[in-house]
What does this fold into?
Amino acid sequence: MAGCTKAIYNYNISKMRTITISSKAQNFITTNLISILQKQHHSTQFVPEFQPIQTEDVQKLQYFVSDAKQMFVMTGAGISTESGIPDYRSEGVGLYARSTNRPVQYQDYVKSSTIRQRYWARNYVAWPRWSSTQPNQTHKTLADWENEGKIHWLVTQNVDSLHFKAGSKNLTELHGSTYRIMCLGCDNMFPRTQLQDMIAAENPNWSAASAEHAPDGDVALSPEQVAGFKVPNCNKCGGTLKPDITFFGDNVARDKVSFVFNKLEECDSVLVLGSSLQVYSGYRFLMRAAEQRKPIGIVNIGSTRADHLANVMVKAKCSDVLARIDCTDSIHWT
Ligand SMILES: [Zn+2]
It folds into this structure.
């Protein structure tokens, strides 16, 4: 659990133990407090340790947002950790720190039916929980900023579709979405929910459970658990199905990259939220923005690959900062 959250948790627990009231009232309060703390734990267990927000940082970011008319916003895994989705790289709480499991590589997925069997068995088990995740305050704020005309285009590196669920429309899911399935053999594309039914129909007697969840809707299962699991093929051509996401080792489609570059061209500033920008597919847009001398703002708990390019750098939890920003404020030069 993150350090700050842990402090609050311990404080609440110690307070709870020192209250002297009737046992009935105490039971009521205890039950509710535990429920609140469990919810709090669920929403912050994958958020890395963070420092309290500084007033000066809020002012700097407010000035940046007020000065922008057509913002290009790029988001990463850091904004979804508060929805209970772990990221890959955060110290202590990211997948790489907690587990030896690593995301599937594109070439391995395409070449090996054993890897596809393991992938889909795990994904099938993870889907009910994964698909029930909800947008948090940051996703909702960005949808509001779009409605206010502040955001011209939103690009996310996340595959969880939480921006879509929050109502953002001017949106590119750079690495795709786990909510769509595509066929490698034809142009068949259909919702992930449909695949869940297809898998259930082919595996009527198969079931497994796991406690660990990963950033892309994955869970850990043993080889014994996976044995016997049947993977459905495309019902149009019999080809191999794949989630419509960019696996590690694969590239984002060229037309999608040029589309995003065009959107970047139309914008007057760039704001990065919750991304370390370690992956080149997102970082390249920051390099282009710097070449075009567009102002760059970054809000992220840890350091990023583009810190040296940023005009405004705020090291904090995104929801803490955005809640204090008024997107309707604007600076009028006279
Ligand atoms: Zn097909």
Observations:
- The pocket of zinc ion is lined by residues 183, 185-186, 188, 234, 236-237, 239 (CB under 6 Å).
- The first strand starts at residue 71 and ends at 75.
